[in-house]
Write the structure tokens for this entry.
Amino acid sequence: MIGSSYKRRDKLREKQSTKVVEALAAGDIQSGTGVTNDLNTTLQRKDQDIVNAMHQIRSSKDRLKEMRNEGWGTLLNDVTLFFEKNDIEIINMEDPYYNGVSRRRGSQINCLHHYRIDC
């Protein structure tokens, strides 16, 4: 319904933007700067050599793996709390994941696998 009206869509976007700004200010959500931001900043330095750049990439890759393996539960809990607080429907992570392809063909992976491993 929202997609059919530009006015409604713009109002929804404006309202959502306001909610995000308020949540950032309150500390309910984080801005997303972290592992990849550190890597990005390091790789953009003018005096960067290839050996140091490769070390930074390896270090960031290891930290991302650690986050995926050990930090998944915390992240999922934070997202669930945010969804509940904002009355957003929570998907069942055990349901099959569909990537826009026909639903008739059974999906080989579930939502948990897609979001934890593939993404």
In short: DSSP finds five helices and no strands in the chain. The helical segments are 6-26, 35-43, 50-70, 72-85, 111-118. Residues 6-26 form the longest helix (21 residues).
